[in-house]
Design brief:
This protein has helices at 17-32, 54-61, 69-86, 104-113, 153-164, 182-200; strands at 3-8, 37-42, 90-96, 120-123, 126-129, 135-141, 169-175. By secondary structure, the protein is an alpha/beta fold. Helix 1 packs parallel to helix 6 (182-200). The radius of gyration is 17 Å and the shape is globular. The relative contact order is 0.17. It binds flavin mononucleotide. The site of flavin mononucleotide has 18 residues, from helix 1.
């Protein structure tokens, strides 16, 4: 059975524009794949991922036998996020742009799934991603228009990060100009909708 993991990164608790596009994709996907299992992870609103700090990183790198109960809980949380990711073959990310970057909670999520020896390994040939065989769809929503310009720092960052962990098959769908006026918004969402229909078939 295919498992699809939907990662919502909007602060608007499932109602953000990016979450709605992700929902639209998941609904269309479910229609053509009724047996698919859907798992939703809301990293920014419902269950915000805490930011990485010295204490949390210290827990990651401590030897398993030396970890305090507190450190074990921190690692168990990170392990559960990683297991959830590993168990899915399709990853859907709702990605808003906030102040020219990705939501800080999505960065915090990435910080909790990037674990040396667990999700990537350092080898003589360089780093090697250990999370392979996934298909990733990213639904990026923006108030302005940035795709294909140097101001779009999100696309290269998200692609590079996912590639680092071994996820190389990544498709972006953009809905842009959402704050530039009703017509621009409508056109941006309509374009994204067409892409969603094509991709979910
Ligand atoms: C705190 C905040 C910061 C934003 N910063 C930007 C920005 O830098 N560039 C942009 O084009 N839009 C920006 N926007 C607009 C959002 O990208 C846009 O509303 C998007 O649809 C938000 O996705 P969401 O509804 O899923 O949260 C910002 C919105 C918020 C709430």
């Amino acid at each position: 059975m295919t498992t699809l993991l939907q990662i919502n990164a909007s602060i608007h608790n499932g109602k953000g524009q990016s979450s709605q596009l992700a929902n639209q994709f998941v609904a269309a996907y479910q229609e053509s794949h009724p047996a698919a299992r859907i798992v939703v992870r809301d990293v920014a609103a419902a269950e915000p991922v805490p930011h990485l700090n010295g204490e949390r990183f210290g827990a990651f790198i401590a030897k398993p036998g030396d970890r305090s109960a507190e450190q074990q809980a921190i690692v168990a949380y990170s392990d559960s996020l990683i297991e959830e990711l590993k168990s899915a073959s399709i990853i859907v990310i709702g990605l808003p742009m906030y102040n020219f970057g990705v939501p800080s909670q999505l960065k915090a999520y990435f910080d909790h799934i990037a674990r040396a020896g667990v999700t990537f390994a350092y080898t003589e040939q360089g780093p090697k991603g250990l999370i392979t065989g996934k298909k990733v769809f990213v639904f990026a929503t923006r108030g302005g228009v940035y795709a294909g310009t140097p101001l779009d720092t999100q696309t290269s960052y998200v692609r590079d990060f996912l590639r680092f962990l071994g996820m190389t098959d990544v498709e972006f769908v953009y809905a842009e100009g959402l704050h530039l006026g009703p017509q621009t918004k409508e056109a941006g969402l309509a374009r994204a909708g067409l892409e969603i229909t094509r991709l979910a078939a």
